[in-house]
Design brief:
The chain is built from nine helices and seven strands; from the N terminus they run αβαβαβαβαβααβαβα. By secondary structure, it is of the alpha/beta class. The longest helix has 23 residues. The protein is globular.
């Protein structure tokens, strides 16, 4: 009775992806290309944040951007207005990117003359956190209107990132968002995470994000 095999497919998929991600990181290290994976829920301000940051850095760093989405090229068109290299990645209905998809995007982008590659991941707080893309570092954006309880609801995402940007602080007075409580919740999940408050609309805090990027690129190339 019960003469059948049980295959742990999910575990196998993750193990294979982790292997591919580590290989990709090694390649990027040799090429001296720093890859930042940026995640968030839809409407958090990813594209606006990246546009402001790219404009602050593009005259000193060679930048390329991969825009991932289930469909449409709206964000890629917006980013292209900054003048940096950009490619649109369509996931065919999948709610995340994995290491192989990221590598395909990097090949299309061309990393030979890119110092800083940005992956704007598919917008949601669940699936993207589960898959290692091969990025040098991971960042996420949480916007004030989303609420300070998101670290409690989506702990995996907050525990995976190296940098948390809390965006839309210009509307902090209009929402029931406890900034210090949010920071405390995140730090309990991820003691090593760095937290920067920004307003992509006004530009507040973008200089701090740009400084973090400069520092991480320097460390990536020196290690």
């Amino acid at each position: 009775m019960g003469n059948f095999r049980v295959l742990e497919i999910k575990q196998s998929v993750f193990e294979d992806n982790d292997h591919q991600a580590n290989l990709l990181r090694e390649e990027l290290k040799k090429e001296k290309t720093f890859l930042l994976n940026v995640m968030s829920s839809p409407g958090s301000g990813k594209t606006t944040t990246l546009t402001k940051t790219i404009n602050a850095l593009k005259n000193e760093i060679k930048i390329g951007v991969m825009e991932a989405d289930i469909d449409s090229d709206v964000d890629a068109r917006t980013i292209s207005e900054t003048g940096v290299k950009v490619v649109q990645l369509h996931t065919g209905g999948m709610c995340h990117l994995d290491a192989d998809m990221t590598k395909q995007g990097l090949i299309a982008l061309g990393t030979e003359d890119i110092d800083f590659a940005i992956l704007e991941n598919v917008g949601n707080l669940v699936c993207p956190a589960e898959f290692d893309t091969g990025a040098s570092k991971n960042a996420m954006i949480l916007s004030v209107p989303e609420g300070d309880d998101k670290p409690l609801k989506y702990p995996l995402m907050f525990s995976k990132v190296d940098l948390l940007l809390i965006n839309k602080i210009d509307v902090l007075d209009y929402f029931d968002f406890d900034l210090e409580a949010c920071k405390e919740r995140v730090k309990k999940l991820n003691p090593k995470v760095e937290i920067v408050t920004i307003s992509a609309k006004t530009g507040e805090g973008i200089d701090k994000f740009a400084h973090w990027i400069r520092r991480e690129i320097k460390n990536w190339n020196e290690d």
